[in-house]
Amino acid sequence: MRNKLIEEAKKVLLGNKKKGYTLPTNNKLYPAQWKWDSGFISLGYSYFNLKYALDEITTLLRGQWKDGMIPHILFHDLKTNYYPNHSVWNCGNKIHSSGITQPPVLAIILKKILDKNKIEILDKVKIKSIVQKLKKYHEWLIKYRDPKNTGLVSILHPWESGYDNSPLWDYSMNEVKVEKNLKYKRGDNKVINPEYRPLDADYDRYVTIKNHLRKNKYNPKKLYNKSMFNVVDVGFNSIFLRANKDLLELLKSFNLEHNKLKKFILKSENQIEKLYNEKKGVFTNYDIRNKKKIIVPSITNYFILFADLKNQTINKKIIKNLKNHNHTKKYIFSSIKPNHKKFEEKRYWRGPVWINCNWIIYQGLKNKDKNFANKIKEKTINLIKKNGFFEYYSFKTGKAFGASNFSWTASLFLDLVMEKKYN
Ligand code: DGY
Fold first, then answer.
1. Catalytic position from the list 56, 146, 246, 391
2. Phi then psi dihedrals of residue 352, to 5 deg
3. Residue 273 pLDDT > 60, yes or no?
């Protein structure tokens, strides 16, 4: 059974593969290369085709902007019905792209791949160049998304988080004044049942913010202060802290300069605790633009475990709280705590189970609570076994929603079942 599923997972990836990169799914919903999808996809390939794994990252880095930014979408194919497409974004370096970024998972994935594979001498040159580009990207995030040197970086569009319509953004999005006479045509809800997708009211705001970024020529110097959306997100910062720690190891192994990064890590490790609400035992977001704490029980707040904080008292409290999220249920983790007023069973990031969230939390728990970590792993594998390689699932029934043949679900399944048994 497991072997058959492993073969099916590989088939999903190969079925979505284009020249040098892989689509998130084969059903027209996402006809381009997405940044954090590509990271997860690369990890899956590393179990059966190391060349494809490195190609995925290399192609993504070909679209890196001159200043270091890695865009969240690269439009390799210009003739699609995706909205917003390349002409709407109207930017890019070498490859048409979006003008925003997405969670910085690449250094984490690269380190994982290098830890378990012997890289040939020839590839070393290639990998060193990847590491240098990732360094430039992390420096971009630090310089432009934390210009006040606080140790925490901001996102300037909900799409940058990857969890687009999470209730985490409701307050901040309500503060965004929708552009007058806004004209655009969504493609997503023609391909997928609109009940599972964000609302038009969300898109009005996504597009308004995007247009404002474009008007400002995506100028990172200006936009930290000017953007209509500026939030310090726990999930994004946890991933960044973990990625910085992994990048530090990669820089050391290639004898590359790393002192500045080391300092930033120390600062982040301290400052991220400012997002900790001791009374509730949870981490919460902060809306910089509106100066407001955002307290929403999102599973992404638990990405803090992935950051591997040294503070074990906090780690213990967080794990205790995570156990109250919904772990006794058959299907875990709902993206929003089910008893929360904004929870919706089927709608994208407002409730469904996402495999990458389970995977991130599993990685964060491995060295802190083995039993719990194992339980998450088994439940995640079983959910996929029972319902297939989909984009997201109901936490109540396991029913699959969104895109089928979803690449990162297949990829992370491969990682979960093929990683070496940890001790
Ligand atoms: C989409 O189109 O739904 C994506 O999540 C935006 O990046």
1. 391
2. -55, 160
3. yes
